[in-house]
Known about the structure:
A: DNA polymerase, domain 1, 5 strands, C: 2 domains, four-stranded antiparallel β-sheet
Amino acid sequence: MTEPVMLTVNGIDYRVNVDMGRNLLSVLRNELGLTGTKEGCDDSECGACMVLLDGQPVNSCSYLALQAQGRSVTTVEGLTPADGLHPLQRSLLEQGGVQCGFCTPGIIMSARALLDRNPSPSEEEIRIGLSGNLCRCTGYAKILAAVAQTASDG
Amino acid sequence: MPLLTESKHFIRPDGPDKVTGSGRYVADISLTGMLTAKFLYAGVSHARITRLDISAARQVPGVFAVLTQEDVPERRFGSVADRTLFAKDVVRFEGEVIAAVAAVDAEAAQQGLDAVVFEYEPLPAVTDLEAAIADGAQLVHEGWADYEAADVERDGNIASFTSMIRGDVEAGMAEADHVVSSRYVSDASQPAPIEPRGVLAQWEGDRVTIWSSTQVPFQARDGVCETLDLPTNRVRVIVPHMGGGFGGKCGFHYEAHVAALARAARRPVRLVFSRQEEFIAPDRRREGMIIEITTGLRNDGTLTARRARVLLDNGAYSSDASFFPHMAAMQTLGPYKIDNIHVEASSIYTNRQPSGSVRAPTAPQACWALESHTDELAAAIGMDPVAFRQQNCVDTGETGVAGQVYDEIGLQDCIREAVSAIDYSQELDENEAIGVAVGWWPSFPGPSGAFVKIDSDGKGVITTGAQECGTGSVMTLPILAAVELGMEPEDFELVYQDTSAAPYDEGATGSQTILNNGRATVEAAQQIAVQLKSLAAEKLEASPDDIVLADGKAHVAGSPELAVSIADLAGVAAEGEMLLGKGSGTPPEYPSAVGVDCIGDRGLSGWVGPQFSCHAVKIRLDRETGVVRVLDVSAAHDSGVIINPIGASGQVEGGVLMGIGQALTERTVYSEDGAQENPAFLDYKLQTIADAPPIRVHFVEIFTPGVGPHGSKPIAEAPNVATAAAISNAITKLVGRPVAQLPMTAERVWGLMQGRGGG
Amino acid sequence: MSFMIAGSLEEALTALAAGARPVAGGTDLVVGARQGKAPLPTSLVAIDRLAELTQIEPTDGGIRIGASVTHARLLTDPTIVSDYTALADAAALVGSPSTRNVGTLGGNVMNASPAMDTGAPLMVLGAVAEVQSERGSRTVDLSDLWTGPGQTSAKVDELCVAIDLPSRPARSGSAYVRLEYRRAMEIAVVGAAASVTLADDGTISDGSVALSAVAPTIIEVDGVAELMAGHLPDAVGAAIAAAVAEAAEPISDLRASDSYRRHTVGVMAARAVDAAARRAAGEEISVPVNRAIGVGASR
């Protein structure tokens, strides 16, 4: 049985019918075509599916789509400006913090949430802020540098 | 030789697509009418199939196709041809595919799987390496003697075997003042790319296009052709963006299953793995190992002889693992000067997930054992372990374990740089220590090809079979073409995703891109350089030999003002003979290894372009719990001249962190009957950003002729060799003995301090 | 199948009485269903938007934490951090920033995992759970609430609406320390919470210790107050560790053996007592104490 639900994603209202058990990730990817949010695991352990819910990072794989009603969902597509790149996206590229890129959207969303609540994080605060995002390629050094660069560029 | 890119920030061309989320990975691609594939796995490690009935499954609403081995050609594949697409008669590990279903959605596919009748009679599971090679052991493959395998020594449960013998070990041991024996045991671990694999197949008439997250599209294509009886011109493999591989996506995996499903269903079919499937099913895990080493040495530190026995857990099938014994033998000998050696290495069938190439296969475990043992040797004569290595490691012009004499190499420089960067002689807290280890890794010459074209506006396209799983071919190959043509890397697009468009390439495996694809790309670009020079010579009224390509222009040597832009020349060429280059080149030949007798020779005694490294780590130990934290790492590498610094340092940083995981937290735990107990990221623990220490990367840049372009050597696997070893040596300094089990978990370190375990 | 976002507590309780299950952050529920461990209930009522469940408010005798308060709030709330610090320590260690954002205290308590991080702090802080149904409201001691792994004594129609904590004595402090193999996204291998109250002479006048992941439920260790009373904090570590190891009934699993758990839970308890006593004496030890004082896997 499906429920009609109104979801606000990247500022756009979508009306979709979803099963009660559907997670937000699946609705974003399969119903709304927003495949920038990735699925790397199914238990909130990798962070590839990170989106912002009312500005806070949430693992969309472990969040019921129906619970997102009335909240504002932001995905990596919504963070990208119409022309060019968000400063976090630019720093990640300049610092070399992107290799395979699969974890990157999730990293960007966690970093965005961190910088929104703490514009000048210490290195330790960046580490904790991104600690829910696994990256297998980079060893994290260049990701750390990119977030620090974004913060210092203001 | 200057760096080719100095400190230039070259933004990876696929980067904007990846950071904005517009980039498509296999799981992001949908086709009209697409069905969902799901597999039924054995769920038992060893059993004889007594009944397999799919008739009810085929009747499930929404199910379009159900396949078993009955529905595909009778073909065995693998480096030992020991495997079929679907289980036939006997299942040999829990992740073996029994049946595949294609259905309108995941729910219907699951209902289809649930309707398959699969009954079996359990057989004893072979999980202990020593027991597996004992007389009368249960065989994993009763019919092994009939399997085809080129140049592989086999016997019973021994899937492949290599011995290396040089000099006289007995005499060498007799000369020794000390004989030190060690035994090390490593658990299996996993490549764990963050993207679980996906395969999508669509038939158009008698041709199939397969989108696959494979590191090796040509191998995948050839596997489909072999197992489904198709010619190569009917199978096209396309790799969109790929979310990491680390060897896990090397080899031929599920492309044929999905292609067969799509053909039977007459619909496009997509398979996307769950994380649990990604752990359990692929024939690509890092093998468990038992390593026994005995070394003789004199009081002055001279190594007189080494004997070693290595047992590798092959798992249920051989995938590409038949060269592992030879590689493990070389890793157990190491980059040292020893004249008398005798190593025997066996890869042994068990009823566990098959082993296969994972980033530097066999090296992290074998190097960990060898380098832990090396610190034991130094301790036996009271010598500092760094000085011991400086004395015994090979240097330029010296002879290695297999008799190979090395040209200019930078191992000694690596040791010096790593030790200096970590401040080896610093004063340390009583719970802190610095460990040091050296590593080595070969380069793998192979065939490759590239097409380069310059279009009418002077912009270029490189078409190759190289793969991009995050390793940076999208950066390196444009840099190489740009250098040949006096252009900028940004002037080139790299097309690398398509087996029907590009020449053959081995793919992102064996760190080979820079070596083989680099050679092909350079050769293709050089052909265009000849064309450009000829066009410019005509225009500038000079001899082609006097034309120089630089800064986007062709100018007369010595007269930069006499110039014409490459864009102008391209415009001219576009009206007539177009600017097209093709390259392949002859791969460098393997050097001979002098005086080594090798049974089961896989051609790995003499190494082309050996890469060397030294890693130094500073750790802190919580003595009450055994928890180890890595505080600081320095990693010095001789990978020749570095073409792409940002990509190369990224490889080292990532390789080191993977090594820290392998050292401390990453292991696959098996139940007694061979099932994985932790196929999830909660209990298969990758390092997080909160754990990651600073990693100081240093490249010892030696121009190395005859390997990659511009004196380069590969870099992707080498950083994953020596880290666990260095951590082991640091722990030993604090607790007195090597942990001798990998990973060196907190509990194992604690157990050692309680007087249990250890080497 | 039905799903309702409750607009009021009454609505939620009515739904529960009709057989719905409550969902707050949903992390355990959704993960469990996706991994096939437990099917999703056929009827759900979302309680995460009930304002009355998201308050942290002073009461006559202490503080009341709404069941839907998230871990992220617990670890930054000034009163929790200053007076109920063990709870803040635990909240800061849970999962990752995203799981701390959606995971709630009530969800944690009612999930009744023996490895939960907030359970041992709640126990040493003397917490009781307020559960409510259409039939009325009652308070339950945590030791009565948790009956086994994943099991509580609450009836199916009862909702945990708040956790009540008594006010803290003068010169008291608390801490939660857990063993972890990496610094984030961890589950407790073992964990220990301690509460310590100091006399004017610096000796311990009262205290308690509770343990995670060494028994079918979170357990409080008997006799700790007597063991510590009259001693300086420095002098009790070994005795605490021994008493704790005695009380623990750990199992062996892939995370640790029983003997390693028995040993390390003693270590964690001694460290928790030490940190709690230092906090009682006025020392500022930032949250979580693991990272602040270099415990276990900390830097």
